[in-house]
Batch of 2 targets.
Target 1
Amino acid sequence: MILTKDEDIELIRQAGKLAGATLYAISKLVAPGVTTWEIDEHAEKLIRDAGAIPTFKGYRGFPNTVCISVNEEVVHGIPNKKKVLKEGDICSMDIGATIRRQLDGNKKFDFIGDTALTVPVGKITPRLEKLLHDTRQSLYDAIKACRPGATLDDLGGAIEDIAIANSYGLVRDYGGHGIGPDYHEDPFIFNYRTGSRVKLKPGMVIAVEPMFNLGGDRVKTKTDRWTVVTQDYKPSAHFEHSLLITEGEPEVLTLRPEEVIG
Ligand code: MF3
Ligand code: CO
Ligand code: CO
């Protein structure tokens, strides 16, 4: 989606800000003994209390507000009353917030913020700390490459370079995407070089979302038909921001309180 009108840009900013603030709030809830279900309930309340809609709930049949993926789970984990976080786990949370503008007749137009991060549960090993740090840094490097005229390969290349330098399994089956009124839209944004010469343009809204594994790059979907896990069951991290491409530096729509893109 390309946004040009100030009022539309204001609405996507609101959606992004709410998604970022909600993700920040639930990241503070993460602790040993907490269930992924409780985290999800809290996120849904925060989004609805703000007058917005949880983007994922019902999207292609996903049942909840947050995708919560623990340890070997890569993305799309389903919150569960029986899933209790424990010391030493890593917990990825991905959230979407929709601000709906009602147009004439029955028409509507949605503005969506999509963002994710992985946090430690209590104390984690130095190797896991580094996995989280490097995955986040690859997102930041990709964000810094998001200048108008840059190609999708500039973003994917920034991510791929960090994965290769540190021998992580780089997940290739999932990636970033354009964001539009129906959520996912073109272009698909690969987290590695593909030879793409598709260029970024001011007004584009995109989500960039690298996923790195401590083991191999292969993933599979569990029988619940949602949860994606690493084939070797080694842990995986995921960070995501929604961005508005501008004439200068990209605007990080889902920036969290206290977060600095470094
Ligand atoms: N949030 C994921 C993404 O970043 C997609 C989740 S789809 C859902 O693109 F249905 F699980 F919500
Ligand atoms: Co997401
Ligand atoms: Co996304």
Target 2
Amino acid sequence: MRAHFKTAVRTSRSPLPLTLRRELADIVGGSNFLTGDATAGYVVDWTGRFHGWTPAVVRPGTTAQVSAVLAACNAAGVPVVPQGGNTGLVGGGIPLNGEVVLSLTGLDRLDPVDTDAMQVTAQAGVSLQRVADAHPGFDLPVRIASRHSATVGGAIATNAGGLRVLRHGPMRAQIRGLEAVLADGRVLSHMAGLVKDNTGYDYPGLLAGSEGTLAVITQARIRLTPRSENSVVALIGVSDLAGLHGLAVRSVREVTGLESAEFFTTAGLDILLAHTPLARPFREPAKTYLLLEASGPHAMEQLGELAADRPTAVAETASDRARLWQYRERHPEAAGFLGTPLKFDVSVPSGQWVHFASTVTGVVHSVDPYAQVITYGHIVDGNIHVNVVPAADADGRHQDVVFNHVASLGGSISAEHGIGALKARWISLARTDAERSLFAGIRAAFDPRGILNPNVLPR
Ligand code: MLT
Ligand code: ZN
């Protein structure tokens, strides 16, 4: 796909009209208006697969500045790609065709936690880790591996899921209020933090997962959860995928304080062991691994019963828990040690999970016999991350076979990362004509001139 996206990039790089350039620089100030080499960190994604270019990166520091920037770009008909921490994995934050980059990282105010309401107000550029650390008694319900760089705005715009969806739901479920700016500069604000509020359309819920196509999120009021005390992590070795899935399903029923149920296989672990200081978690060999975290008074006993006599590492202290989590949380790096990966984040119904997990490598090899395939993910959500390091041209063949396989099993081509640019060609596998025409109508209502993130979610 690298070749595909590179050819999609305009060859003649037109600068911004001089008047718009002056206007944008005046709005954000010269030091927050970047051009040329200063834009380098904003035009390539974390995996290195998506490369674009931009005539300018603008970094507003207030909602009023975001509003003025969008109004100016909209009036000039100049497209804009909103960008948070640039941790996306599907090219959704990269200016593939010379769009202006609207970086929200300058909106970094985090208010004190409202401990009665168990909520906090954070501007779009605040990292998820800062929100999680905002109060010793409370935690952000959503936890993702890239939380130190990923921002509130980006996590809402992509409806980030991650490691605790089974307990708390994705980012959409944490929104208690939202402020966002429409393409023409109008500010929408609904920040009261009311738990119950049936006064019309739930546009904050609609903006979650809209991938920057409807409006630019500037701040949010976010639900917090009491910080779990005394949680226990168990990493269990399991001999095959059917046993792994069976154990994960049992964990949901039998472990009352279950927070996370994650899996990886020896394919990814062996790469991490070869390229990082991580040591094998236990001596006994296992083909697959189930990582469970649970809290509450029965956590240790219930996890112990589940693990029975399988090889298991258990962690009770914060540092030991973090050590075990590294085996799962460093998996996104594994494929990167081998090359530039294609990242898939598919989901399938529970009854198809074992079949999909057992067949997906063969499906990839049917079009690229020497591709390397690593799977891991959020097992009880039915969500498998299939990381492919292609040996053949990444010309769409991998997406074709993986997404058709997923669709044939009743699954989704995007469980968490979004459609972005990576999957835009395959949206018809996931959504009907009627759904896509509704999407186009919604998009036109929010952004009639079509300036917001034009490369993602096809119109
Ligand atoms: C994860 O679950 O680790 C993230 O979604 C990132 C990835 O897919 O690599
Ligand atoms: Zn994930």
